[in-house]
Design goal:
The longest helix has 14 residues. The protein is elongated and about 70 Å long. Strands 4-3-2-5-6-9-7 form a 7-stranded mixed beta sheet. The chain has a two-stranded antiparallel sheet with strand order 1-8. It has 2 domains: about 180 residues, Rossmann fold (3-Layer(aba) Sandwich); about 60 residues, rRNA adenine dimethylase, C-terminal domain (Helicase, Ruva Protein, domain 3), CATH 1.10.8.100. About 35% of the residues lie in helices and about 20% in strands. It is α/β, with parallel strands linked by helices. The protein has 10 helices and 9 strands.
């Protein structure tokens, strides 16, 4: 069957399914990913196989993770001529991606991610960042804007800081709603995440950094003093070399890492 050709399978709202059917967009995505034979590529949510098919043509050892059991026989039948094609049925949010890692063959993760799980899934995958070469995702454009946002941008927040701590974010191009069936009500975009082998500035305590960033953006309109007074006493606050009258959206990723390291040293 042709790429993007619909099957007798209805998209399910509970799985957040919107199937890509635009051939021009598919070609642009494949060009961005540039798959090659022998690479360790894992696709999340292959759906009807619109992206799967052209990737398999270049990388026959592709692995996919699919939650919808009804799609498994469709994929097996469609790609029966690819003996190295592997289907793993399950929830990507609960999948141990370390099982796909091979020494000397870092993972390349791709996927048209359901809007309702995109943020927690990205955080889940960042837990395997040391084993991942790159990630290419189709996401709601609003989420891509948040991933790539800089300090003082309205989209800048917890997601921006934590993802940029682990990886370099490259927004690639927008995808219109008309490229999908059923047609979503939002615009999408393709983003590339390139995990660092070592972050530019290292957090001494990742749990503390995560706690600091989360607490700060829960009250983003308030100053950092308001967040930090729950972590440090008044004497310790005066020892910080940061202007705590700033709001969280004014601080860079490096500022947050430096601040968490200072807090860790004072506690």
């Amino acid at each position: 069957m042709n790429r993007g050709e619909p099957y007798q399978h209805q998209a399910r709202k509970r799985f957040g399914q919107n199937f890509l059917v635009n051939h021009h967009v598919i070609d642009k995505i494949i060009a961005a990913i540039a798959p090659k034979p022998g690479q360790n590529i894992i696709e999340i949510g292959p759906g009807h196989g619109a992206i799967t098919e052209p990737i398999l043509a270049k990388c026959p050892s592709l692995k996919v993770v699919e939650l919808d059991r009804d799609l498994i026989p469709i994929l097996r039948e469609k790609f029966v001529d690819y003996p190295d094609f592997q289907i793993h049925q399950g929830d990507a949010l609960k999948t141990d991606f370390a099982q796909f890692y091979q020494p000397g063959q870092a993972m390349r993760i791709i996927g048209n991610l359901p809007y309702n799980i995109s943020t927690p899934l990205i955080f889940h995958l960042l837990g395997f960042s040391q084993q991942i070469e790159d990630m290419h995702f189709m996401l709601q454009k609003e989420v891509v804007d948040r991933l790539a946002a800089s300090p003082n941008d309205k989209s800048y927040g917890r997601l921006s800081v934590m993802v940029q701590y682990y990886s370099h974010v490259q927004p690639l191009f927008k995808v219109p709603p008309t490229a999908f069936r059923p047609t979503p009500k939002v615009e999408s975009a393709i983003v590339r995440l390139l995990p660092y082998s070592q972050p530019p500035i290292i957090a001494n305590d990742l749990k503390l950094l995560t706690k600091l960033v989360s607490a700060s953006f829960q009250q983003r309109r308030k100053t950092m003093r308001n967040t930090l007074k729950h972590m440090l006493d008044s004497v310790q606050l005066e020892q910080l070399d940061i202007d705590i009258s700033l709001r969280p959206q004014n601080l860079s990723v490096a500022d947050f890492v430096h601040l968490s390291n200072q807090i860790g040293a004072l506690q």
